[in-house]
Design goal:
The chain has 256 residues and is α+β, with helices and mostly antiparallel strands. 22% of the residues lie in helices and 25% in strands. It is globular. The structure holds 2-oxoglutaric acid and fe (ii) ion (FE2).
């Protein structure tokens, strides 16, 4: 069932006036730690989303090349193209999300005051690609070693396009994704269809998956973050149901 949450707008980098909402920040952080994710609709201004989406469309119209090996795509069933606009381009519009005070306060409420900002990553999935198989972004053995995904969506995720985000609430609590077939239905899994301007906070140990992209392309942008003590390459090894894969060496480090 698509998730629907209490719409919560907040002050954006565009300067739309808004009262500070410490109660909402506290409740959102509590909900995140209970379920391993939290959704806030209407988190970002539609005009900002349009500007970011135009940059993303322009970039990928000129750069449709996969950086992953075929072995990875075959074994992980993951087909998505990354772009790091804040690192690799001169475009300053992406900084607006980083300078949003509500997002910073919310991140501090979840991670503690000294969290690391790991620079944003756009993920682009062309029509006809498989999405992403069930995975955890990093190994769950050490509960405190995790990444925080702060995902924003510059276009609605709709069934006609595909790319719905599936996740299993509560699985961020030190549970390894069980080995097996990549595409299964888990008891308790939920389906999110984030809209333009929605923020999805997702714990890196929470089991999650992206459904195939069937019509048009799909875009999400992850303003990556992690607790202060955690190394920047925390997501180098990803846990899939059939393997653990290391991105830096482009190799399968464990068959499962
Ligand atoms: O694009 C999404 O909705 C989630 C992608 C994902 O699995 C991730 O960022 O780790
Ligand atoms: Fe992921």
């Amino acid at each position: 069932m698509p998730h629907s949450s209490f719409p919560l707008s907040f002050e954006t980098a565009l300067g739309i006036p808004h009262p500070n909402r410490p109660m909402h920040i506290e409740n959102a952080a509590k909900s995140f730690w209970k379920d391993g994710y939290h959704v806030i609709e209407n988190a970002f201004d539609p005009e900002l989303m349009d500007r970011l989406h135009a940059h993303i469309s322009h970039h990928f119209s000129e750069n449709l090349v996969s950086v992953q090996t075929d072995e990875f795509t075959r074994a992980s069933k993951c087909e998505t193209l990354p772009w790091f606009p804040q690192r690799d381009s001169q475009i300053s519009d992406f900084d607006a999300v980083d300078s949003d005070t509500f997002l910073s306060k919310l991140t501090s409420a979840i991670l503690g005051a000294d969290w690391n900002n790991l620079c944003s990553m756009v993920m682009f999935s062309p029509k006809g690609t498989q999405g992403q198989a069930w995975h955890q972004d990093c190994p769950p053995e050490t509960p405190d070693r995790f990444n925080l995904k702060r995902l924003i969506y510059t276009r609605d995720i709709v069934p006609e396009v595909g790319g719905e985000l599936l996740l299993v609430p509560g699985t961020h609590r030190n549970q390894e994704l069980p080995a097996g077939e990549p595409d299964v239905t888990f008891p308790g899994q939920i389906e999110l269809r984030p809209k333009k301007g929605t923020l999805v906070l997702l714990h890196g140990h929470t089991w999650h998956r992206v459904l195939p992209v069937v019509g048009g392309h799909r875009v999400s942008t992850n303003y990556r973050a992690a607790p202060a003590t955690i190394e920047a390459d925390v997501t180098d090894i990803c846990v899939y149901r059939n393997m653990r894969y290391q991105f830096s060496t482009q190799s399968v480090v464990q068959q499962r």
